[in-house]
Design brief:
InterPro entries: DUF2809. Helix content is 60%, strand content 0%. The chain is mainly alpha-helical and 91 residues long. It has one domain.
Length: 91
């Protein structure tokens, strides 16, 4: 993803990845459950599907994306884009 990607594109990508990760927990093959039994595997893959998690991801992204857009509209800069310059303050 480009450092100049729109907030909407980043938000949609975050929602797709988090939903895909949550849905992957429906797959319970022995080999992936062995990975999930490790601490890193559990932290990355989770262990059980939950609609509540999908709701939490959606609400979190829906609350933060507008704040992110507001920040960049008012002249905030993305750290990955050093050429971006803040807008001068208006009087």
């Amino acid at each position: 993803m480009s450092p100049a990607a729109s907030v909407a594109k980043v938000a949609l990508t975050a929602l797709v990845i988090s939903t895909a990760d949550e849905c992957s927990q429906l797959y319970q093959a022995p080999w992936i459950n062995a990975i999930r039994a490790t601490t890193p595997g559990h932290l990355v893959l989770g262990s059980a599907f939950s609609w509540g998690d999908i709701v939490a991801y959606t609400v979190g992204i829906a609350l933060v994306a507008p704040l992110d857009a507001w920040w960049f509209d008012r002249g905030g800069t993305k750290s990955a884009n050093p050429s971006a310059t803040p807008k001068p303050p208006t009087a």
